[in-house]
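Hello, quick one for you while I still have it in my head. I'm working through a protein record and want to make sense of it properly. Would you mind checking whether the C-alpha cells look sensible for this chain? I owe you a coffee for this, so here goes:
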Amino acid sequence: MKTLASFALTLGLALAPLVLPGTGQAQTLAQNNEAMFAEMQSVRGLSSSTMARIREIFAGSSWIGQGNPTVTRHPLTPEEAAARQGGTVDSVRRQYRNARFERICGHPYEVPLYDPATQRPEDATVCAFMFEYPNVPLAYPVTWVSAREAALLCRAEGARMGDAHEWEGAAAGALLPPDYQFQLGSHGAMRAWHNNHWGARERNLYSIGTWRSGVCATGSFKNASCNGGSFTGCGSNTYPAGSFPQCHSPLGVYDIDGNAAEHMNLPLNESQMASRGSTELGVTEMKGSWFIWDTVRAHEHWARWRAPFWHGSRVMAQGSHRNYHLGFRCFRDVR
C-alpha cells in the first residue's frame, strides 16, 4: 500500500503541517483556532459578540478545528493556492467578493439560492455560505465538528444549518421546493423515492456539470496511520477553500464537491425543517468529501443523491457524529 508520502511524491504535492513562525514547531490546535478566529473577524467582519459565541462552542470541544495539527498534512498552503490563481491571499479574497450578492444576503461570501428558471437572485429567500466553514476564502475547512456543534455555530452567526433539499439545490444549481415525501413514514422509504425520482433526471449531474477529475479538491489522501477515523491517526488533509476556482455550482457555491464532507439537516417531518424555523431539527445527512475521491468511488455522488443513514442520529443529539473529513457550511434566511 502506498503511503501518504509516496502519493504526495507521485502528485508533486508538498504536504506539510502548519508551523508556528520562528519556532519550527507545529502549531497546536488552540493556536490554529486563534489564527482562524482572527481571520474570521478580519475578513468577514464578524462582531466581537459573535466571535465570543463562536469561541464558547469551540471551547467545549477538544477536537474542533482545521484538523489535528500533529498528523494533518495539507496539500497546499493558502499562499500556494493563491499563487496558482495568479495573486496573493488578500487579492484572491477580494476577487471572491460579490457586491450584488452582498446586497441580497447582507454579508460577504454568501450567495443567494433560487431557481434560475423562474427567479432572479434578488428573489432568493435564503443564502448559502460560499465556502465551507469558517467561510473564509483560502482558509482550511473546520473538521471534527459534530452535527450539533455545526448547528450551534451557524446559530451563533444568526444563520442556521441547511436542510438537505437546500444543499442539493445549491449543488445542482436550482433551489426547488422541498420533496421529502413525509407521508412515506421512514427515512429509507423517503430516500428511495427521492433517489429514484431524481436519478431518472439528474443521475450524472454534479455541481460542476459533468464530473471531471482534477477540477475540485479531490486529490488528497488519508494518512497511512488513519485506520477507522481516530483523532490521533487521521489528518484532515484538506485544501484551502476555493483553491479550485472552477469547482463551484451554477449558483456560485464552492467546494460542494470535494474537500470536506458537510453536515446538513434531513427532516423526517415538517416540524423538523430548518427552513421552516425549526431548532429541534431532524437527523444527520452528510455529503461531499475528498477522503476517497478521486481514488475510490465508494458510493454515488450526484448533486441530488441522498445518502444512507450513515452514523445516524438526531442532529441535536449530544453524541452526533464527527470525523476528520467532516465539516459544514451555514445557510441564512434573508426575508
In short: The chain has one domain: 4-333. The first helix runs from residue 4 to 11.
